[in-house]
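Q: Structure for this?
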Amino acid sequence: SAVISQKPSRDICQRGTSLTIQCQVDSQVTMMFWYRQQPGQSLTLIATANQGSEATYESGFVIDKFPISRPNLTFSTLTVSNMSPEDSSIYLCSVVTENSYEQYFGPGTRLTVT
Amino acid sequence: SQQGEEDPQALSIQEGENATMNCSYKTSINNLQWYRQNSGRGLVHLILIRSNEREKHSGRLRVTLDTSKKSSSLLITASRAADTASYFCATAPFTGGGNKLTFGTGTQLKVEL
């Protein structure tokens, strides 16, 4: 298993600004993911955060809007850039441990853009 | 989007009753997983069933998988108020990106005392 923390837990931001969300894992993991959950909706995968290389983005998500860093095997950041009210969502990171398909999720960051 | 569908969208039952949620998906899978989410917080992994398995148990949970119908069901027996949450199925693709999950639309379960 893995214990994951996220910072901040919530934030209220003005449109046009950017917010960086941090994800910290208590052990080294190969695969980390970032998801978005819009109000009342399911989870949508934004990207896979790759250590030492650029993130792999899903259709509909671009690096300019959601830059991701993965400096080591226990940490990643997601930045939501030039925010608009449509970016109001819960953002979650998750990890997969070795030899497992199960994903462990952080508690999420609840973002409100006004 | 290849997001799966879950039904019902919402389910309200009395404590002690059983709750059944269904999930349908569209593509071939390596495995299917069920997760629980309490009040918009992080998700908790409940159970994983592989594509070559038909049924799996974990405590009060029973999951079935029918790959010919591309469907799965989650049964929670003897429900408790603490089971109140949203439940999501998630599928991992059969080929490539084995750890990339596609989540279903979710079922909101409310267990009343």
